[in-house]
Design goal:
With 336 residues, the chain is of the alpha/beta class. Helices cover 41% and strands 14% of the residues. The strands form three sheets. The chain has an eight-stranded parallel beta barrel with strand order 1-2-3-6-7-9-11-12, surrounded by six helices. It has a two-stranded antiparallel ribbon with strand order 4-5. Strands 8-10 form a two-stranded parallel sheet.
Length: 336
């Protein structure tokens, strides 16, 4: 099966004829939804069905549904969830309660997504922020200690998987030190390698068994002073060999301003560096056509990683949603 090594977004609430033709011809590995694609549960379900129909298979459909600031699904149709840091605050008071609340919250998110046909959530975020870093991570992080981040990220990953949704580990090998927002500028991290190993890299090493991962558009001077991790063979080699991540590795969004050069160049550099998939999110047809023009089928190694990752899509556990919700509200003190 010659599936293209790409994930695309779309522009609106329904697919245009041009999008249907493009996706059918490109046959991307998967799709990603954003707030512009979301109105009601029924509309989202129909869109997911239509996306899969264009490629004629059960293609993965992703979303960033972390809670807090990064939530594509919001009230009134969907429950509001706190930022990851709320679970870190609970964990600081009662480790068991924090872990349970985090797993249950992720399970509830996963159940909502699964009901509409989405089967991949871009959590957990395992970045470790440091004082003075840009708040693009901020309260999206579970805490500021690697061990706390690791424990809660594992709980979140377990929760979404229990709901039948695959987690995506991000942003490998760590976005927490970034001094600028990579959506707008290219961050450069000057910390020495020993310091990165002792802090930033630790959660990713512990979570290296997760099925899917996403790179960071961050330059780590100690690894490669010229290129961000996404396009750096040295950084991808570190992710694979030192951190031990052997899951399916996607880029962060190629349309982010941290990356320079043409869209075609970004694709080539990412794949040549060792990324398995390129992620393009904004739904702009001209850019997607540029991506498709230079993106080939999954490599043999990426194909095996894809098979392994997708084999972990499972039937949701039989936990009662109502019971989970009541327990989660009790732990978090949230209104639901």
């Amino acid at each position: 099966m010659m599936v293209q090594a790409a994930i695309y977004g779309c522009e609106g609430l329904t697919l245009t004829d041009a999008e249907k033709r493009f996706f059918a011809a490109a046959d991307p590995w998967g799709f990603i939804l954003f707030a512009r694609n979301i109105d009601t549960p029924a509309q989202v379900s129909a869109l997911c069905s239509d996306l899969r129909m264009t490629v004629g298979r059960d293609a993965p459909i992703l979303v960033d549904q972390e809670g807090g600031r990064v939530a594509r699904f919001r009230p009134p149709h969907w429950r509001a969830y706190p930022p990851a840091r709320r679970y870190g605050e609970l964990f600081a008071k009662d480790k068991a309660a924090g872990l349970e609340a985090c797993r249950l919250g992720a399970f509830l998110i996963g159940a909502e997504l699964r009901d509409m046909g989405l089967d991949v959530d871009c959590i957990p975020l395992a970045d470790v922020p440091v004082p003075g870093a840009h708040d693009v991570i901020g309260d999206r992080a579970y805490g500021e200690e690697p061990d706390v981040v690791t424990a809660l990220a594992r709980a979140a990953a377990t929760g979404v998987e229990d709901a039948g949704v695959l987690p995506v580990l991000k942003h490998i090998p760590g976005h927490g030190r970034a001094g600028v927002d990579s959506h707008e500028e290219l961050p450069v991290v000057d910390a020495p390698l020993d310091e990165l190993r002792a802090t930033d890299f630790k959660p990713f090493m512990s979570l290296a068994d997760l099925p899917l991962g996403m790179t960071a558009h961050v330059v780590y001077a100690a690894i490669d002073g010229e290129r961000p991790a996404t396009t750096s063979p040295d950084a991808i080699r570190l992710i694979r060999d030192e951190l031990g991540f052997d899951g399916l590795l996607m880029t962060d969004d190629l349309s982010m301003k941290a990356l320079g050069g043409s869209m075609e160049g970004r694709v080539r550099e990412s794949i040549d560096a060792g990324c398995d998939l390129v992620l393009h999110c904004n739904g702009h047809m001209d850019e997607m056509e540029a991506v498709a023009g230079v993106t080939s089928a999954l490599s043999a190694a990426a194909g095996l990683r894809s098979e392994s990752a997708l084999s972990r899509r499972k039937t949701p556990s039989d936990e009662s949603i109502q019971a989970v919700l009541e327990r989660w509200v009790e732990l978090v003190g949230a209104s639901a």
